[in-house]
Amino acid sequence: MTAIDPAAGPSTSAQVWRERLAGLAQTYGAAVVLVVLLVVGSIAFPAFPTASNLANIATQSSFLLIVGVGMTFVILTGGIDLSVGSQYALGGVLAAYGSAWGLGGGLLLPLVVCVVIGLVQGAIVAYGGLAPFIVTLAGLLGVRGLVLALTGGGSSTPLVTDPALSALGQGGVAGLRWPVFIALAAVLVGSVLLLRSRGGQAVLAVGGSESASVLMGLPVARVKLTVYTVSGVCAGLAGALTAAYTSSGVPTVGVGLELSAISAVVIGGTLLVGGRGNLVGTTAGVLLLTVIQNLINQVGSLTSSVQAVVSGGFLAVVVILQTVLARTQRL
After folding, report:
1. Rounded Cα distance, 44 and 66, in Å
2. In a domain, 218, yes or no
3. Of 205, 204, 178, 172, nearest to 190 (Cα)?
4. 280 backbone φψ class: left, alpha, beta (φ>0; ψ -120 to 50)
5. What CATH number corresponds to the domain at position 176?
6. Residue range of the domain that includes 229
7. Domain annotation covers residue 261
8. Domain count of the fold of the chain
9. At residue 4, does pLDDT exceed 50?
10. How many Å apart are CA 27 and CA 231, to the nearest integer?
11. Half-sphere exposure (Cβ direction) of 4: Cα atoms closer than 13 Å
């Protein structure tokens, strides 16, 4: 008869609790920090909790959140999309040009073009076997070059000429602009697809273990193709809404947006290696980044370089914590 070590039970139980707590911290940590910052900001800065400032935070978050939805799907498969900032700028420029044909032209033109870009990048990654980093880095440079070509090297800024398209970006209800509601709808639809559909489960499975997914008979290549296409659609839509909001397609926007989107997704608890994450966490991550920037602006005396150091330092701390928590769950 094999002797049973009486210490084995409690030790195993403690390990399970550590893993559960680490999982909860990783999933809901961004939301908890967000609540703390909202409380601290409301106490420290009287102008922070005003309706106009909170509505501004929601509006500024909405564009990044839409991009973040697509980025979440990509990262869940273990991939990365560095081209979203350039596609975001392209979407805005094309929306401004397309507004000459009305609301439909202003929305369809950027969406169709960005779908094609997403499909091409997804096909190269899925069927060509190239690393997503290299493929989308090339996309970042190529699409940005296309934006500059369409705007005379960035010297011209096309204007939105359709009132309906401008109203889509500038109008709203209950003090919130329409892009906020569109972003929330994107999160809702994305969450349902991710959690309640076989395609969403396939995305998580591919990110968890691509080799196991192949053995299970999952269409790994098709899943990768789909997520990069979704990322392109989201970037193009966000760019079009930004053009509608500003009434112009500014060719220089979106520089570094890919890093902000990746940061928000990681802060929200999605693992960079894929297989684990959710869009609610991404929403919290986006809001957290926007609130931090807003609080820095409330201080007013910090230079842009100091702001960058603060934001970068915060991101580094969060990534380190996420890595430690992920390792704790695997122990």
Report:
1. 30
2. yes
3. 204
4. alpha
5. 1.10.3470
6. 47-328
7. yes
8. 1
9. no
10. 22
11. 3
- Burial group, residue 201, by CB count within 10 angstroms (0-12, 13-18, 19+): middle
| pLDDT level of residue 272 (50, 70, 90 thresholds) | confident
Q: What is the pTM of this model?
A: 0.91
Tell me the mean pLDDT in the region 172-198.
95
* Torsion angle (degrees, nearest 10) of CA 49, 283, 326, 197: 150
Q: Whole-angstrom Cα distance, residue 270 to residue 276?
A: 6
> Which of the two residues, 307 and 209, has the higher pLDDT score?
209
Where does residue 3 fall: left (phi above 0), alpha (psi -120 to 50 degrees), or beta otherwise? beta
Q: Which amino acid is at 222?
A: R
What's at 40, amino acid-wise?
Answer: V
Number of continuous H segments (helices) and E segments (strands) in the chain: 13, 2
Tell me whether residue 9 is in a domain. Answer: no
Contacts 24+ apart (CB under 8 A), 216-223: 220/126, 221/126, 221/127, 222/126, 223/77, 223/126, 223/199
d(CA 262, CA 125): 18
Helix (H, G, I), strand (E, B) or coil at 172: strand
What is the structure's pLDDT at 303? 65
Residue 111 contacts residue 233 (beta carbons within 8 Å)? yes
Structure tokens at 151: 């705007």
C-alpha angle 57-58-60 in degrees, rounded to nearest 5: 65
Distances (CA, A) of 86 to 83, 94, 144: 5, 12, 5
Q: What average pLDDT score do residues 262-281 get? A: 89
The number of angstroms, rounded, from the C-alpha of 24 to the middle of its chain's C-alpha atoms is 21
Give dist(CA 127, CA 164) in Å, integer.
Answer: 40
Give the pLDDT confidence score for residue 2 in this predicted structure.
44
Beta bridge partners of 172: 177
Q: Any idea what DSSP says for residue 194? A: H
Model confidence over 126-173: pLDDT tens digits? 999 999 999 999 999 999 999 999 999 888 899 999 999 999 999 999
Largest CA-CA distance found in the chain, in angstroms, rounded: 84
Asked if the structure places residue 132 within a domain, the reply is yes
